[in-house]
Design brief:
Shape: globular
Helix content: 25-40%
Number of helices: 4
Length: 144
Amino acid sequence: RREANMAIEYRVNAPLSLDAFRDVLVRSTLGERRPIDDRECLAGMLAHANLTLSAWDGDQLVGIARNLTDFVLTAYVCDLAVCASRQHQGIGRELLAQTRAQLGPRAKLILLAAPAAAHYYSHIGFTQSERCWVLEAGQPLVGR
């Protein structure tokens, strides 16, 4: 199946339309956990990411790795989305490899995996951390 990946073109920080971004989220099932009906939020997600790798089949966006990074020590992979019909072809792995190629040699990738994708990340070399903490939007800080 990996030969299907040969036609894919990978781009660094290529301009993306809001509709193409929304579409790849929906077609990847990541849209189930993203605010796909809030165009202002989606526009902000695109505008404020400082490293975006995209995978294209001709003029169709089929995958994206959207990151926040300092390029030196840490890159947070905010979204890794590949259209469901194009999964298991190495596109997600290549998006992550292309992301790493943009970073310095000390930079590590960090992400929060969707429950259904947790097995994928260990399969490609990520290690699971028990040190991740999340403060949900609107939840107040407590204590001193």
